[in-house]
Backbone:
């Protein structure tokens, strides 16, 4: 007992001082990641605060959620084993607390909810303590992509459900109270806002605000791929556009003139200093009946199961091997620290926290930078040195130098195809190098034992080498980029302190419409879908068989070529069915509190049941740990393969011709047929542009760049240029 915790402490303690030094040495560069994660933590905290306030009749509210997020975030940053881990209140714990409140409400004991929740957290802290001391975190690797993506899809579904539920509430009438002889709403609005016409206005206006926030947030989140604007403006919008949209649509909500107070309905978060009762929950714990104290062990165990999965998976994704972190992990110690934080939250009357997704991996990603790019000469020297060191591993290929000075990989059977830099840092750094035929044949995923080993640079303390192959004019060129992650505690501490500052800004936060946060719930649901192979396979099920070949013409996941479609369908249906089963449990009334146990059942189901239903090769392809990507395949060869398999019949060639015709005709009002220009014809045109007419200067973009670099040109200001101007 406790040996794994001691091992984690011995591994992390020597690095504790370096954690702070590395953050301080970063200077002002640490500010941007801190604000980025602050917004990613604060806005969900406000949304969950509004949700728990509604579901518990105000027993807990946004002040409690912000307090838990800030306080535990500071503790994790200072005392945590893995400082990159971000903790906060998550959607599943809000759902568990909702079921707990309904359990007491059915027994007319909802006034004891906060005190009973404290006992639940005492039990949960005890269970978490036992698991941490027993070293149970070593089994977290049993959760594969199958389990992780199923859990992520369940959370997305719950987010979307809450968004729809919140928007429907905008149309309903609020409860009223008598206050000084006049009728007021419990939410603080005027009684006029509770009449049917204004409730209809409130609901419709709320839907407009929610959809507006959803669409604009999705738009600005992808700003980095825009062609317009400067690079820094696109990055700024991509990182901070979503909180900016919350401010913008909150301002737009005031555009209705003559609306009574309460239209649109706004956040019901109280002023921080008005919340006093819950901080004294320790005094009320003795009033809870004995049978309720014993019954609290059931939700306490359920919270333990939930935290075991959610907290450790969040920590695992924050320090996945693609980031090549230099400092050791501390899963068991962090889980032990979570036990103390859970106990503290219960005794303070605030909801417990755990590692949250996607904030934890977002934090690590925001701290990753491209350190430097080596010169070609240095890269060649590094290649030769490593190829000699790893000569035993290169029996399947060799590195030869071409006449242009670049290096090519010679393998048996196929030439090395260029790998697009868009494959991404995480995928390339994992060593996944693809091979395919030059003529656009069906590509295959290599074992990455030759080129990746030879091109791997000597890794320093916190760096990882990345090989990026690009196809230039002189053939294959290899550029080496070093990925560095700042492993420090300062950014996590700063973002938690900023969340604490929000507690002093509750009068400003109260101006945010509820519908804007419901729109943010929908945004979190839709934003969690890209990158999920589970979601991609669901879309594949609804894809026309005659159109599936188009997926291979772009970068795609390898299982589209290696696994038969009926196996993919069977695997996806099993995964979707299990997810719907867990989701159905959440609708089972008070019994829905047991949904985390169904998530834990994924471990034996994946380890013992699915191998009997699928072959090990198919499971390896469909449930792979890394996200792999295969290069596109030539259009004609894809059609040939699809016809060979009988997916596309010969009679469908007429439809293919019609589609080709639609691609060749541009415009609707004034249709024009494309004229495909050959490269040789384009080169001839460029040469004609380089021979200007008398008294006329060339205006081509490439010619202007050439003039700027030519000291003899008039633009560059050389001596001959002066004579020409004279």
Residues:
């Amino acid at each position: 007992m406790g040996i794994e915790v001691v091992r984690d402490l011995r591994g992390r303690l020597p690095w504790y001082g370096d954690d702070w030094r590395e953050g301080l040495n970063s200077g002002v560069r640490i500010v941007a990641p801190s604000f980025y994660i602050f917004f990613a933590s604060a806005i969900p905290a406000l949304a969950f605060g509004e949700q728990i306030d509604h579901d518990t009749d105000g027993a807990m509210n946004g002040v409690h959620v912000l307090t838990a997020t800030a306080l535990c975030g500071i503790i994790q940053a200072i005392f945590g084993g893995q400082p990159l881990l971000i903790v906060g209140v998550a959607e599943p714990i809000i759902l568990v607390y909702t079921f707990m409140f309904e359990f007491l409400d059915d027994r007319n004991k909802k006034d004891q909810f906060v005190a009973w929740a404290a006992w639940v957290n005492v039990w949960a802290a005890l269970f978490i303590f036992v698991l941490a001391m027993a070293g149970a975190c070593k089994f977290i690797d049993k959760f594969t992509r199958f389990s992780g993506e199923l859990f992520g899809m369940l959370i997305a579904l719950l987010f979307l459900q809450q968004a729809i539920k919140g928007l429907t509430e905008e149309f309903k009438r609020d409860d009223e109270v008598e206050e000084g002889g006049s009728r007021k709403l419990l939410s603080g609005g005027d009684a006029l806002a509770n009449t049917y016409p204004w409730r209809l206005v409130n609901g419709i206006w709320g839907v407009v605000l929610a959809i507006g926030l959803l669409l604009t947030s999705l738009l600005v989140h992808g700003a980095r791929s825009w062609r317009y604007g400067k690079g820094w403006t696109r990055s700024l919008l991509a990182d901070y556009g979503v909180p900016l949209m919350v401010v913008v649509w909150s301002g737009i909500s005031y555009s209705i003139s003559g609306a009574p107070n309460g239209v649109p309905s706004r956040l019901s978060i109280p002023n921080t200093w008005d919340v006093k009762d819950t901080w004294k929950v320790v005094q009320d714990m003795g009033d809870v009946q004995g049978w309720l104290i014993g019954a609290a062990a059931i939700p306490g165990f359920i919270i333990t199961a939930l935290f075991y999965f959610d907290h450790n998976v969040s920590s695992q994704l924050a320090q996945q091997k693609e980031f090549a972190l230099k400092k050791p992990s501390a899963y068991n110690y962090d889980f032990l620290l979570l036990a103390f934080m859970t106990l503290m939250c219960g005794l303070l009357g605030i909801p417990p926290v755990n590692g949250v997704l996607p904030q934890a991996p977002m934090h690590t990603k925001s701290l990753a930078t491209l350190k430097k790019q080596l010169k070609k000469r240095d890269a060649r020297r590094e290649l030769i040195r490593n190829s000699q060191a790893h000569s035993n591993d290169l029996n399947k290929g060799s590195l030869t130098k071409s006449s242009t000075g670049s290096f090519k990989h010679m393998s048996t059977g196929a030439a090395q195809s260029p790998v697009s830099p868009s494959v991404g840092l995480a995928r390339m750094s994992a060593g996944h190098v693809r091979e395919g035929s030059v003529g656009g044949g069906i590509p295959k995923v290599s074992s990455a034992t030759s080129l990746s080993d030879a091109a791997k640079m000597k890794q320093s303390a916190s760096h990882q080498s990345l090989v990026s192959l690009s196809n230039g004019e002189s053939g294959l060129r290899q550029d080496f980029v070093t990925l560095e992650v700042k492993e420090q505690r300062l950014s996590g501490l700063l973002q938690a302190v900023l969340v604490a500052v929000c507690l002093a800004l509750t009068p400003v936060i109260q101006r945010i419409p509820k519908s804007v946060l419901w729109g943010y719930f929908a945004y979190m649901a839709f934003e969690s879908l890209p990158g999920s192979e589970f979601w991609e396979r669901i879309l594949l099920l609804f894809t026309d068989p005659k159109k599936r070949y188009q997926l291979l013409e772009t970068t795609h996941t390898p299982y589209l070529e290696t696994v038969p479609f009926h196996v993919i369908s069977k695997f996806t249906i099993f995964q979707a069915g299990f997810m719907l089963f867990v989701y159905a449990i959440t609708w089972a009334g008070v019994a829905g509190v047991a949904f985390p146990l169904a998530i834990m059942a994924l471990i034996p189901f994946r380890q013992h049941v699915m191998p009997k239903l699928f072959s090990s090769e198919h499971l390896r392809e469909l449930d792979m740990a890394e996200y792999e990507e295969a290069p596109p395949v030539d259009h004609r060869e894809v059609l040939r393969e699809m016809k060979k398999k009988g997916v596309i019949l010969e009679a469908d060639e007429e439809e293919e011709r019609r589609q080709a015709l639609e691609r060749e005709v541009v415009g609707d009002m004034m249709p024009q047929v494309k004229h495909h220009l050959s490269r040789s014809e384009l080169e001839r045109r460029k040469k004609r542009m380089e021979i200007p007419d008398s008294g006329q200067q060339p205006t081509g973009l490439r010619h202007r760049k050439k003039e700027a670099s030519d000291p003899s040109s008039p633009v560059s200001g050389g001596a001959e240029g002066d004579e020409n101007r004279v």
Observations:
- The first strand starts at residue 87 and ends at 88.
- Residues 176-184, 373-377, 392-480, 702-726 have pLDDT under 50 and may be disordered.
- Residues 154 and 580 are 8 Å apart (CA to CA).
